[in-house]
User: What shape does this take?
Amino acid sequence: MDYINAFWVGGLICALVQILLEKTKLMPGRVMVILVVTGALLGALGIYGPIQDYAGAGASVPLLGFGNVLWEGMREAIDKEGLIGLFKGGFTASAAGISAALIFSYLASLICQPKMKK
Assistant: This one.
């Protein structure tokens, strides 16, 4: 049942984002920023945690989940270190994921030999 919940929640998030992209004139970069900010806001309001517990990777993998990770890191760092945690908590919480994305994309570029478009 966990797989089904992850599938339908993740699919619903992706479908809503696709509708947003097609029905508005928002550029994809702006939509990505909206998703990260919305995830952080839902995390701050205590709404995203139960959704993530229910859907697992269906809610933690999309950009909404990244915004929630940033918020959780900031919240923990603020509790431990005070105001300075506001500035470094998000970096600490997301460093492993961002580093993995950079490393794997670099390795993929070595394997696939990308070329510039002409």
